[in-house]
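Quick one:
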Amino acid sequence: MNLFIAPETLPFGVALGVLVGLTVIEGTGAFLTGSPSSWLEDLLPHTDADADGNIDGPLGWLHVGKVPLLVLVILFLLGFALCGYIVQMFARGLWGGFAPAWLASIPAFLMGLTTVRGLGALIAHIVPKDETSAVSEQTLIGRAGVVTTGTARVGMAAQVRVRDALGRAHYVMVQPDIDGEEFGEGTAVLLVRKDGAVFRGIRNPHPGLL
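Output:
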């Protein structure tokens, strides 16, 4: 039976499908009101991070807080799927048939974690430190930023660059807090609250203080 349509390789095909789907939705969400990366970051438990954005415990071991969570999910899915297919190829070569899906998923799961740990460390060194999202997004409320991409209106967010208390840049999606208002590129805005995966903002009344 074909490797990619065999029931024993279904978990790995699903993982690849989710990977592709996340990539498409993330690209689309960047121009709408939210994205998987924002939703995933909101689902993270509140944990303490040090000044460099490092988190202790298992999450820190997997580089959560140092690498965007969506990137870590993609790395896991990629490692899981590729390892699963390789295991099944070896199983068919050795025994003439595929191993049960649950059995092949065990080394695949471990390889997924290993991929996150290994490649995540490399990406953590590449990602600029001033673009980390390690601090809680709630701390950005009350800070000013500038629209960098798109035009923000109610129902459609635009990307805004805002700096946290340590001076590190963050790129967040923002919609106007007042109906009928629009923010074009270069507009100075003030973040006033967080609404789900996006922030709400108003025109910065004191743009000179940005």
